[in-house]
Amino acid sequence: MKRRFLVLAALAACALTPALAQQGPAPAGDIPAKFTPPIVDRDYIKREVMMPMRDGTKLFTVIMIPKGATNAPIVLTRTPYNAAARANRVDSDKMLSALPLADEMFVREGYIRVYQDIRGKYGSEGDYVVTRPVIGPLNPTKVDHVTDAYDTIDWLVNKTNLPQSNGRVGMIGSSYEGFTVVMALLAPHPALKVAAPESPMIDGWMGDDWFHYGAFRLANIGWIASQTGYKGKGSDPATGVYDNYDEFRRIGGAAEWAKASGFDQLPAWQKMLAHPAYEAFWQGQALDKLVAANPSNIPTIWEQGLWDQEDIYGAITAWEALKAKGKIGNNFLVMGPWRHSQVNREGRELGPFKWNGDTAAQFREQMVLPLFNQYLKDGPAAALPAATIYNTGEDHWDRFATWPLACDVGCAHPMTPIYLGAAGGLGFTRNAAGEDSYVADPAKPVPHLPRPVNFEDGRWGDWLVSDQRGVDGRPDVMTYQTPVLTKPVRVAGAPIADIYARTTGTDGDFVVKLIDVYPDEVASNPKMGGYQLAISLDIFRGRYRDSFEKPSAIPAGAVQRYKFRLPTVNHVFQPGHRIMVQVQSSLFPLYDRNPQKFVPNIFLAKKDDYQKATVTIERGGAAASAVWLPMVD
Fold this sequence. Notes:
The protein is α+β, with helices and mostly antiparallel strands.
C-alpha cells in the first residue's frame, strides 16, 4: 500500500510540473513597485512640523491632536531624546496607546500634546550645545532655550497654525527636558500658563549631573559621548572591561580615560576639562541663581525624587531660591520616593521598598493634572500646599504649608547635632575628645555598589536605596550608630554633615551617609532584617572646603572642617531601628578618585599622583564631628 502511494505521488508531481512552468518567470523581488497600506482610522491627527525659530533654524516638532478637538489646551515638551520616538510609544490608532504612560491623563482630558527636538538633535536643524546657557558671556549667539521655547509657543498659539487650540500652553518634562522647562520660565511667553519641571538639571557642578561639591561623576561620562558624538541616538564608548570599577581604576584621571576612548575630541568634554572648579562657567549656568534673578509668576510644580541618582539637587534648590524671593505662592514643591524620572513610570516600589500605592500616578493625577486643568482649562483650583513630601519612614504623603520644618534660621525647629562617638557610638551628647583613623587607598576605593559594577547592569536606577552592609566593616569606612531607638525620631529638612578631620595627604574626599538601620528581624519581611537604608548621602571634595571657586591644598596633619548640606529628607526612624552615620573617602566608580595629593586639575592627574593617606576623624571636645539633623520633636 505504501509503495503504491509513493508511485501515485510521483506521477502527480510530474503532471503538475508543465502547469507550473506555464505560469511565467518568477518576480524579481518581493517588494512591489507600489504598495498602499490600508487606511487606519486613528482617533487623533498627527502632524510633523519643521517649526521656524527667529534665526531661521527649524526645529522638528510632533503635534498630536485629538480628532475633533476644538478649543483644546496644549502641553509642550522640548527634548534631546527623540521627539518622534517620544510621541510613538507604539504604533497605534489610539492616542492613549501611542503616547507615553505619563501622558495618559492629558489624552483623557483632551489635551493637544506636543514634542519637539531641541536645536541640533535628531530631526532639528542647528547646533547642539549641552544645556545651552542663556544668551550672554557663555553664549554669544542670539538664541537659547528661552528664545526657542518662546518662538515655539508663539507658533503653537497662532490659530492659523493650530486652529484646534485654545491659545494656552503648559510645559512639562523630566531631567534635561525639565531643564528646558525652567529655561522657558526665565522670560516666558504670555501664553505659557503653567509648568512642571521634573527632576530638572539646575546646577551641574554643585549637585546635579556632572559634579557633587567638586567630585566628578564618572557614571555620566558615557552620556556625554552618546549625546554629543551623534546627532541622533549614540552609544557609550566601547570597552573591553565589564567591571567599571576595574576600568576606571586602571587609569589615572578621567582625562586619560577620555583620551584612550577618543572622548577627548568632544567639545562638551573639553569644556568640563577646562573648568574643574566652580568658576563663572558653572555659576553662569546655575538656574537657581537665574530664576531668583528673573522670577516669573507662572504657576510651577517642582518635582524631585528623594533618591534621585542623577539630579537630586536641582528642583528643591530652585524652589528654595524662589521662596527666598517671596515667590512661593505659585511655586509648589513635590518630593516623592523615587529614583530619577520615576514620576513618568510606575511608582509602587523602589528596590526592595514597597510604597502605599502607585505614588508616581498619585503625583500625576492628584497634583500635576489639577494644576494644569486649573490654568489651561479653567478647572477647579488645585488644592496644593507649598510642599508635598513623601514620608519614607511612615509610608504616606505629608502636606506642608511651610518647608522645611527644621533649619538653621527661620524654621519652627532648630537643627540638632548627632555626634560621632567612641567605639562606633552615635548620640546626641558631645563626649570627650577622641579620634578614629583609617587608610584611604586610591588603589582600593570604596565601591558605591557591590562589585562587579557596571553602569548598564540595571542597578543604577535604585542604587541609592541599596543595602549599605556591603561596605559596613571595611577598615576604610568609619561606622557610627545609636543604640536601638525606643521612640520615633522624625527628620524633616536637609541634614548637614559637619566633619572635623586631618589627613597625611594634601587633598581628599569625604563621603557622609545618614542611614536607617532596620531591626535584626522584621517579621513582615524577613529579608529586610538588618537592612541599612541610606536616607541621605553625598560627597565633598576637600580642596573646596574654603572656596568652591578657588581650590587649595589641605595642610597635611592639620585639622580642617568640612561642612556641607546633604540631600533633603522627610523620614521617621522607627522604634526598634538605629540611626547610623558612615564616613569614607571614596564612592567609586560613581565618582572619580581623589589622588589625595593636591594637583591643580584632578582630571589631569597621573597614575603616580595617586597615593595612600591616613585620614583621622576628630570626635568630641572642641572638634566634635557630627551630622546636624532637621529633627522635629
